[in-house]
Design brief:
single chain; alpha/beta; Rossmann fold; 2 domains; 7-stranded mixed β-sheet; 3-stranded antiparallel β-sheet; 11 helices
């Protein structure tokens, strides 16, 4: 949906939008939050897609500074009103894709609740990168996404009531409902995507919500297995680098020995034609052509693009 359509939902946000912090059934989210190791003072929370501020309202007292990011201006206006007593909040009306370049890597905890759901892969990729980009080294990310396994369970339950059953089909986890398309994620997919962005997954688990959100009555039989979203808690495990080669490289040059005094491990790159551009947490570094580029970082070699930068 575009910003105008999202603003239409501001007044009825609780009815029309999945606010998992409010709708979860057994306080599983609190269990995830309790596992986050925060500094004793001035901890920073970045809520990407904060909606009407439910997470900030519930957990904001644990933080000295908070960044609330929301796409729709009317929705964030409601968040400001609801969270008026929460101190230290900066509200930003923008898409979460821009958050890394605006906020930088400051978060001790980044939360992103059912926001990375676009059917467009490029948009989702930029949103995953934004989660990584605002989380500082040693910080945690708590991401909630729709579960593909839950969606399949719900569809089977729905089809059990139909005479004419249709096969379950999903194009790369994209589910269509009433003309709207939403990406759902398998458990292993969530783990892989978090790892791709430099996180070491600490815990993945279900966050259950009522059957009524799926348009079904919660019978005694259904109560034993409610639908769920996946929640993933992960600390930053390495520094993520985006490397963009502006022109095709020549053949790799021999890797020289690390210079005296270099921090280990030290990796050296390739001779390039033109320029090489490295984007590091929203900061761009450019190197001229024809020179070997050396970077010393305390990260495993396999985590650098191509084994080296």
């Amino acid at each position: 949906m575009n910003r105008k359509e999202w603003n239409k939902h501001a007044a009825t946000f609780e009815k029309n939008v999945c606010d998992i912090t409010r709708e979860e059934t057994d306080n599983q989210l609190g269990g995830f939050v309790s596992r986050v190791k925060l500094p004793r003072q001035d901890a920073v929370l970045v809520d990407l897609g904060c909606g009407i501020g439910t997470f900030i309202l519930r957990y904001g007292a644990r933080f000295g500074r908070i960044e609330g990011v929301e796409y729709a201006s009317r929705t964030i206006a409601r968040a400001k009103t609801r969270c008026a007593d929460v101190r230290g909040v900066t509200w930003r009306t923008m898409g979460i894709e821009r958050a890394a370049s605006v906020i930088g890597g400051q978060a001790d905890l980044t939360v992103c609740m059912n926001v990375i759901t676009s059917h467009l892969a490029a948009r989702r990729a930029s949103q995953w990168k934004s989660v990584a980009g605002v989380t500082k080294r040693g910080g945690f990310a708590l991401v909630v996404v729709p579960s593909l396994e839950s969606e399949e369970m719900v569809e089977l339950e729905y089809q059990s009531r139909k005479k004419n059953k249709t096969p379950l089909e999903h194009d790369n986890g994209v589910v269509e409902r009433d003309g709207a398309y939403q990406k759902h994620f398998a458990r292993d997919e969530v783990k892989r995507l978090m790892g791709d962005e430099g996180f070491a997954v600490k815990r993945i688990g279900e966050i259950f919500y009522p059957w009524t959100k799926e348009g079904m009555r919660e019978t005694p039989a259904r109560k034993g297995k409610r639908p769920w979203d996946w929640a993933c808690l992960a600390p930053v495990s390495y520094t993520h680098l985006d490397v963009y080669k502006r022109q095709p490289p020549l053949a790799p040059s021999p890797r020289p020995s690390p210079p005296p005094g270099a921090r280990e491990p030290c990796y050296f790159g390739h001779t390039v034609v033109g320029q090489i551009e490295i984007r590091f947490r929203g900061i761009t570094f450019e190197f001229d052509c024809g020179a070997d580029v050396g970077i010393a970082l305390p990260v495993p070699q396999q985590h650098l693009p191509g084994g080296a930068v």
